[in-house]
Design goal:
about 625 residues, alpha+beta, 9-stranded mixed beta sheet, 5-stranded antiparallel beta sheet, 11 helices, 23 strands
C-alpha cells in the first residue's frame, strides 16, 4: 500500500445531522478492498473482515451512526477521555483527547450482529457543518484500534506495546486528511482568505533602493493575468511592525457558502482520484480562470512542484509576518490561576523568480517554551536544536503559512484588573470595571485598539447608565461594548481605566426547555408559587435572583465553556504590534536564497488578544 495520503471518502453533515454532501473515490476504495483481501488471506486468526466494513456505507447510514455517536458521547466531538458514561468500544474508552478529532463510527446494529467499525474519521467542525474525511490506512491499523477500544486499562499505559499515540505516528495519511478537511471547511463557509502578509514601507535589509524608488509591491507573474498582488499602500513607518496593505491572492468569496458544483470542481482539481495534490484554492482558481499559455513553460532542469503552478516574474523580495493570537483568562480568584497561551504562525510571501530554495534559522524556541510546532508541506527541517531550527523550503506561489506553533507568553496580560456584576433586582444589574492597560510594556510594543464586551446572551438590554474614565460605550440587544482605545489610536504607555454603571434588561421571561441528559443533567421547570416560597426563605436576595434566572437555562454544550449561565464573564479583545510576545522571530539577515539573488527581506509582527475576565464570585 502506498505510503502517501489518499482519501477514501468525504462527508459534510449539517447541524440537523443530515449528510448534505458526500464524495467517494473508487480508485482508493479498490486499494482498500485489495488490502483487506490480502490481510484476510495471510491471517487465520482475528480476520479483519469481522471489524472492517466491506463497502462504504451510504449517506443515511453515516448520518444515523454520527447521530448515535453524538448521543452516546455527549456532544459532536465527544468526551475524549474515559468518563462514567463511556462504553467499551467507544472513542472515549481509548481515553485520549485526540479522539475528539479522530473519531470512529459504528455502522449497523450491534444487537443484530452486523456492526462494522469505520475508522479513522477526521472530524473538522466549521460553523454549522461537520466535515468527515476518511483516509486510506492499512487493515492492520484498524485491527489495532479495534483492540484499543476494548482494552480494560485506559490511556497510554507504560509497558504496553499498543497505544493510540504510536498508532497515529504510524499513520501520516491522517495529517493529510486534516489538511483536506480544513480546506473543505474553508470552502463551504466561504472563508477563503489568504494568510496576512504585512508590507512595511521602511527600508529593510537590502531594501533601501526599492523603498526609495517606490517599486515595492509592483510586480507581475507574467504578461497575462495571473493571481498577483495589487500595488500596496504604504503604512506608518516602522522597521518591524508597520501595518500596511495586506498582499493577498485569494479571490474574495465573502461569507456566502459555495455551492456544491464549486465544491465538486475543487475536489476534482485539488485531489483527483482521492490523492491530494494542491489544496490551495488560489492556485486552483487561477488555473481554472487563466489556464496555461506558451509562456508558462516549466523548467527543464528542475521539477516544478504542484503548489507552484506558475513561475513568478518581477521585482524579487521575501515578506514574513509573525502573527500571534493570545488567549488569556483572568478569574480574579485564589483557587483558580490565570492562564495565558499563544497560538502563532509565520506567514510568508516569496516573490522570487524560478524555483529557488530558501533557508533560514528559526530562533527563540526555548524562550518561547514552544509546545507544538508544525511546518508547511514545502518545508524541510534538516537541523533541530533546543533554541533554533534550520528551515529549508521551496516557496509556493502567493501567501502561505510557513510555520504554526503554540507557545507560552513572555509577558504578563496587557490588560489586568477585575470585573464585578451584582444583580440589584430581577431586571437590573450593577457592574464595575477596574483595569490596568499595557503595564510593563514598552516601545516598540503598541496597542492599536482595545474593546471590552459584556455579553448577556439570554437577556435583552434596554438601557445602561455610567460613564467610563476613558473611551466610549455602546449597546447591542444582548451586550454592552466599551471601546477603551478606538481603532487607529495607538497606545504606547500604561494607563488605568474604570467603568462603574448599571444595566437594565427587559422583563424576564421563563423559557421552558426539555430536560437534557447532557451537561448538568435534568433541568426542572418549577412554577412561580414554589419560586415565591423559596424567595421568602432566602436571606440573600442576589442569590435568589441568580438562581431564578439561571434555573431555566439549558445545559451548555461542551464546545462553549464560557456560556454556562446568563452572565459570567467579560471579554477583552485588543491588538498589539511591534514584536511577538512569544519571542519567536526570524532574523532577516540570516535568510539565504539558492541560487543566490539580491532580494530584500522584510519582517513584521501582529499580535491579537482574546481575553476573558470571569465574574468574581
Amino acid at each position: 500500500m502506498p505510503g502517501g495520503c489518499s482519501i477514501r471518502a468525504l462527508w459534510i453533515i449539517n447541524n440537523l445531522d443530515g449528510v448534505i454532501f458526500s464524495r467517494r473515490f473508487p480508485v482508493v476504495e479498490r486499494q482498500w478492498r485489495a488490502a483487506c483481501k490480502t490481510e484476510n488471506e495471510s491471517s487465520n486468526e482475528d480476520p479483519v473482515k469481522y471489524t472492517a466494513l466491506p463497502v462504504l456505507p451510504n449517506d443515511s447510514e453515516i448520518a444515523a451512526a454520527f447521530m448515535e455517536r453524538k448521543k452516546s458521547q455527549g456532544s459532536t466531538r465527544g468526551y475524549g477521555i474515559r468518563v462514567t458514561q463511556s462504553a467499551q468500544g467507544s472513542d472515549s474508552w481509548v481515553d485520549d483527547p485526540i479522539m475528539r478529532h479522530i473519531i470512529s463510527l459504528r455502522i449497523g446494529a450491534e444487537e443484530e450482529g452486523e456492526s462494522y467499525l469505520l475508522w479513522p474519521l477526521v472530524l473538522h467542525v466549521r460553523g454549522p457543518y461537520c466535515v468527515l474525511a476518511l483516509p486510506l490506512i492499512e487493515p492492520r491499523h484498524l485491527k489495532v484500534y479495534s483492540r484499543l477500544c476494548c482494552r480494560s486499562d485506559c490511556g497510554n499505559a507504560v509497558g504496553v506495546d499498543e497505544s493510540i499515540s504510536s498508532l497515529l505516528l504510524d499513520l501520516p495519511s491522517i495529517t493529510g486528511a486534516f489538511m483536506v478537511a480544513l480546506a473543505i471547511g474553508d470552502i463551504i463557509t466561504g472563508d477563503m482568505v489568504d494568510p496576512e502578509v504585512v508590507v512595511s514601507v521602511s527600508p529593510s535589509v537590502g531594501g533601501l533602493l526599492d523603498s526609495l524608488t517606490g517599486s515595492i509591491g509592483i510586480s507581475g507573474i507574467s504578461s497575462r493575468a495571473k493571481p498577483v498582488a495589487a500595488p500596496v499602500a504604504s503604512a506608518t513607518p516602522s522597521s518591524t511592525a508597520a501595518i500596511g496593505a495586506v498582499a493577498s491572492d485569494a479571490p474574495k468569496i465573502g461569507s456566502r457558502p459555495l455551492d456544491k458544483d464549486a465544491l465538486r470542481n475543487f475536489i476534482s482539481s485539488a485531489m483527483p482520484f482521492g490523492t491530494p495534490l494542491d489544496l490551495n484554492y488560489s492556485n486552483i482558481f487561477a488555473i481554472k480562470a487563466n489556464g496555461f499559455s506558451s509562456s508558462d513553460v516549466p523548467p527543464t532542469d528542475l521539477k516544478q512542484p504542484a503548489w507552484k503552478p506558475y513561475l513568478y516574474k518581477g521585482k524579487q523580495r521575501i515578506l514574513f509576518t509573525v502573527h500571534e493570537t493570545v488567549h488569556a483568562a483572568m478569574y480574579d480568584r485564589d483557587d483558580i490561576s490565570d492562564t495565558i497561551s499563544i497560538a502563532g504562525q509565520i506567514n510568508c510571501r516569496a516573490e522570487l523568480e524560478g524555483l529557488p530554495d530558501v533557508s533560514l534559522p528559526l530562533t527563540g524556541l526555548s524562550k518561547a517554551h514552544v509546545e507544538v510546532l508544525s511546518f508547511h508541506p514545502c518545508a524541510q527541517v534538516p537541523e533541530h536544536g533546543v533554541d533554533k531550527h534550520a528551515i529549508m523550503f521551496s516557496p509556493p506561489l502567493g501567501n502561505f503559512v510557513l510555520v504554526r506553533y503554540q507557545a507560552n507568553c513572555a509577558f504578563g496580560p496587557p490588560v489586568m484588573g477585575f470585573y464585578q456584576l451584582s444583580m440589584v433586582s430581577e431586571d437590573e444589574g450593577a457592574f464595575l470595571f477596574k483595569l490596568r492597560i499595557m503595564e510593563g510594556y514598552k516601545s516598540p510594543l503598541a496597542m492599536e485598539f482595545c474593546n471590552v464586551t459584556m455579553p448577556f446572551p439570554r437577556r435583552r438590554v434596554v438601557s445602561f447608565e455610567g460613564t467610563p474614565s476613558v473611551g466610549a460605550v455602546s449597546t447591542t440587544e444582548h451586550s454592552v461594548e466599551w471601546k477603551i482605545i478606538p481603532s487607529g489610536r495607538g497606545l504606547t504607555r500604561s494607563i488605568e481605566a474604570t467603568f462603574p454603571g448599571t444595566v437594565r434588561f427587559a422583563p424576564w421571561q421563563i423559557q421552558r426547555v426539555p430536560s437534557s441528559k447532557s451537561g448538568s443533567g435534568n433541568m426542572s421547570d418549577g412554577d412561580s408559587d414554589v419560586e415565591a416560597e423559596s424567595a421568602n426563605n432566602m436571606v440573600n436576595v442576589e442569590e435568589f435572583l441568580m438562581e431564578k434566572m439561571s434555573k431555566n437555562l439549558p445545559p451548555v454544550d461542551l464546545e462553549e465553556p464560557f456560556c454556562w449561565q446568563a452572565y459570567n464573564y467579560a471579554k477583552v479583545s485588543f491588538k498589539i504590534t511591534g514584536a511577538s510576545l512569544s519571542a519567536m522571530s526570524i532574523d532577516p539577515k540570516s535568510v539565504s536564497i539558492y541560487p543566490a539573488v539580491k532580494a530584500p527581506v522584510e519582517l513584521s509582527t501582529q499580535v491579537i488578544f482574546l481575553q476573558s475576565n470571569h465574574l468574581k464570585s
